Amino acid sequence: MQPFAEHTLLLAAGSVLLDLIIGDPKWLPHPVIFFGKVIRIAEGSLNKGDRRKIKGIVLAVCLPAAVFIPSLLILKWLYSIHYAGGLCAEVYLISTTLAIKGLKKAALEVYTPLAAGNLSEARKKLSEIVGRDTADLPSGEITRGAVETVAENTVDAIISPLVFAIVGGAPLALAYRAVNTLDSMVGYKNERYHDFGFGSARLDDLMNLFPARLCALCMWVGSFFIRGMKRRYGWQVTRRDAKKHPSPNSGWPEAMTAGLLGIQLGGANTYSGAVSHRAKLGDAQSSLLPVHIKQSIHIMNGAWIVFLAIYLCLFMLRRMYYVAAAWG
Fold first, then answer.
1. What residue numbers bound the domain in which 171 lies?
2. Which pLDDT value is given to residue 131?
3. For a designed S-S bond to 52, which of 181, 196, 294, 316 qualifies (C-beta 3.0 to 4.6 A apart)?
């Protein structure tokens, strides 16, 4: 599967379309749920005793490998039987690594009660998508949590899977999702996971290094088609604040979103009663309002649309090059 070939274009476009149509229905098997179950079992048996860092690194390498190799062999077998069958299977597998519809739905489930003044319901819905304590959050902090989640997951659940799907098809996209799931479950710097989650966190950082920066660029380009975006300010804030984030990658989409909306993200979050202070991204040109959640969804959609448009342009340029070369 070569980059910029017709096959990878079908995979990228088809998987996005399928995710937009069906999302993640509960009646279909989902690889990420399987990854989570495997990680819980592995963590329970490995995260104890000595050499926890080594055990964690082994898990971080072995799980994506155990996902990549079987999926590659199964897809090769399906393609050998019939190309259309293999293509459909691969499109579905890649779609399970995406969460465009699911991320929009989760954000709107916070926005709807928040806009109606139902803070208790908005806090409850936010608690389903963030790890921070939400029980006492005011309206602005609920908005911040939702906007940060949309911005960060535009990389993790949309741009990164598409990048790896283009490079290595469904096997590599699934392997990335396995690493990302590992990081979300054990990649914490607390006492329990500081050593065991080291390998997962570092591998996730490495795999998202390029997609996170590409995502910020796609967000900025997409903002030209969205009303009310502060494009010049978004670029300035991203250059100034992206590296302040404790994650080498999350700061890029979050800073770009903060700049485009003219709001401030980051600050104090509480996890199980312990306060964690994060660098502030952007300047509070306006107060955090429920409408910013909807605007962050527009930015998310703009990012993946621009990404596919860039890929389509590269594909067309490649075709034009070969046509020109054939004509001599």
1. 6-327
2. 86
3. 196
DSSP letter at 134? Answer: -
The structure's pTM equals 0.93
| Residue-wise pLDDT tens digits, 19-55 | 999 988 877 778 888 898 999 998 888 888 889 999 9
Positions of the chain with pLDDT lower than 70, given as ranges: 1-4, 328
On whether the CB atoms of residues 155 and 176 are closer than 8 A, the answer is no
* Structural domain includes residue 117: yes
**Is residue 279 in some structural domain?**
yes
Residue 1 falls inside a structural domain: no
Cite the DSSP H helix spans in the chain: 6-22, 31-46, 52-81, 83-95, 100-115, 119-127, 139-154, 160-186, 198-222, 231-241, 251-261, 291-327
What pLDDT score does 328 carry?
A: 63
Contact, 262 vs 229, CB < 8 A?
no
The total number of structural domains in the chain stands at 1
Q: For the segment 239-258, what is each residue's pLDDT rounded down to a tens digit? A: 999 999 989 999 999 999 99
Report the alpha-carbon distance of residue 187 to residue 246 in Å, rounded. Answer: 13
What type of residue is 164?
F
d(CA 11, CA 70): 19
Distances (CA, A) of 170 to 39, 71, 192: 20, 8, 32
Q: Which residues contact 305 (CB under 8 A, 6 or more apart)?
A: 222
Angle among Cα 46, 50, 56 to the nearest 5 degrees reads: 40
Could you count the other beta carbons within 10 Å of the beta carbon of residue 120? Answer: 9
For 12, 63, 144, 251, 311, the CA distances from 3, given in Å and listed in that order, are: 11, 25, 37, 28, 10
CB 298 within 8 A of CB 252: no
**Which residue type sits at 23?**
G
In a domain, 291, yes or no: yes
Task: State both tokens at 257.
Answer: 């979103």
Cβ-contact 255, 282 below 8 angstroms: yes
63 touches 42 (CB < 8 A): yes
- Nearest 5°: phi and psi at 253? -70, -30
